[in-house]
Amino acid sequence: MLLWTIALLALAAALLALSVARRLARRLDALNQSYWELRYDYTRLRSQVSRLDPEETRDPEPVQPASSVPGASTVSFVPLSSIRKKDS
Fold it and tell me: Per DSSP, which regions of the chain are E strands?
């Protein structure tokens, strides 16, 4: 009789776990759907704004390379072997 009770409790726990897993799967699916709808709306609105004001999306001044900026360092690569670790 004890074995039947344990088996029924295990079956009830398994059914409860299955129910919870299905509910979470539905919630995850709804959340995923909402995310993609939001991404679609964001992209659509961003394209509408860029059509309304195309000057705002352009950079006012192009970025210059680091070599043409005055006072920029001429060293572009420092090997790790040249960096000495501090002795503790």
Answer: none
